[in-house]
Specification:
seven-stranded mixed sheet; alpha/beta; binds zinc ion; Metallo-beta-lactamase, Chain A; six-stranded mixed sheet; 23% helix
């Protein structure tokens, strides 16, 4: 876990990384409350509570959860968290609503693994190589790409288009932007100072396997890079991915289009 202090129009903003097994969740202080971005796998409840405890934040201090997309490693703890604090509002894309109800990572909009090397790595014996274990967690039998279905409540906030945080009652200087490609419902949070929390719209993970700042599974690679162009065209400076360490936006500029559709393989 690390803390990043950044400045938004002269105000200090604390970005706390709640590091779970493979997912970075982020906490941002908003007056007396916290905004949580993403949760984690269903089986990570104890680890999630431990990270929250280490950050000295109570679950009752969380006012909103912004869900970057519906995948098992991002939404797995939604129901569990709401059992503890039902006041929390979930913020999500309008396209996430039905997908969350299904309780399964969407595979009906195309998609595949980013390249052949990833496929090969997944087929190797995983016992001896530590990094493989991390990789394997993405498609672990334990989760089987499933998560507890989530039924949207009336108090939740559905994002239809680019939306200022202040327009949905979050008093922070930033905008939710649509960044599809990894999934149809992917959204990112771009703060006015240039910090952008992207979920899986970019990643800094398994570079040696040729990921080139893409996450390993992508629904539509053309849409994915279109979202990069959108992120670059805004005032983005630093990218905070859900998988891997933060990096500068230049990396997106340098790597855009490097992974080709023809090199992708199906996740079967
Ligand atoms: Zn994902």
């Amino acid at each position: 876990m690390f803390f990043i202090i950044t400045t938004l129009k002269g105000n200090k903003m604390e970005l706390i990384n709640l590091k779970l097994s493979v997912t970075n969740c982020f906490l941002i202080k908003n007056k007396e409350k916290y905004i949580l971005i993403d949760t984690g796998y269903e089986y990570e409840w104890e680890l999630f509570c431990k990270r929250l405890y280490e950050a000295q934040v109570s679950i009752h201090e969380i006012s909103h959860i912004i869900l970057t997309h519906h995948h098992d490693d991002h939404c797995g703890l939604l129901n569990k968290i709401l059992e503890e604090n039902n006041e929390i509002k979930i913020v999500m894309s309008y396209l996430a609503k039905d997908l969350l109800l299904k309780g399964e990572n969407d595979q009906s909009h195309g998609g595949g693994l980013i390249n052949k090397r990833i496929k090969l790595l997944l087929s190797l014996s995983l016992k001896r190589i530590k990094i493989m274990i991390t990789l394997k967690k993405f498609i672990d039998k334990k989760t089987n790409l499933k998560f507890p279905p989530y039924k949207t409540r009336e108090k939740d906030i559905i994002i239809l288009e680019e939306t200022r945080l202040k327009d949905i009652g979050i008093e922070l200087d930033g905008t939710i932007i649509e960044t599809p490609g990894h999934t149809i419902d992917s959204i990112s949070i771009l703060f006015d100072d240039g910090d952008c929390i992207v979920g899986d719209a970019a990643a800094n993970f398994l570079q040696f396997a040729g990921t080139k700042y893409c996450v390993i599974y992508v629904c539509d690679i053309d849409e994915y890079y279109k979202s990069w162009r959108k992120i670059i065209s805004k005032n983005t400076k630093q990218i905070f991915p859900a998988h891997g360490e933060p990096f500068l936006v230049n990396k997106l500029k340098e790597n855009i289009g490097k992974n080709k559709k023809k090199n992708m393989v199906m996740n079967k």
